[in-house]
Specification:
By secondary structure, this protein is mainly α. It contains three helices and no strands. The radius of gyration is 31 Å and the shape is elongated. Keywords: Signal.
């Protein structure tokens, strides 16, 4: 009888582990689909807004025209400089030693 009790508890543990694995995989898969649908909606919104978006030169020209209509001296448009983003790398001990 001791062997049967052992097998019963072992199989129960394995069955519960399998159930936990399957439910975990289902939980991981479900939000991915929902976020994919939300991402598509955001993409559609962004594409519709990008059609209406003005270039920086057009925006500056519109500001200058508005200033002229109000009787103010229009400010000159500033040249846009590119933005440089520096992301330092994460180096572990051996990588730093070789640097």
């Amino acid at each position: 009888m001791a062997g049967r009790t052992y097998l019963r508890w072992t199989m129960l543990r394995r069955l519960l582990a399998c159930l936990a694995l399957v439910t975990g995989l289902a939980a991981v898969g479900a939000p991915a689909q929902a976020s994919f649908a939300e991402a598509l909606e955001q993409l559609e919104i962004a594409s519709s807004q990008s059609d209406k978006a003005k270039t920086p030169a057009e925006e500056c020209e519109a500001r200058q025209q508005a200033a002229r209509k109000r009787g103010l001296k229009p400010a000159p448009c500033a040249d846009e400089r590119p933005v440089t983003i520096y992301l330092p790398t994460v180096m572990f001990g051996p990588d730093r030693a070789l640097e």
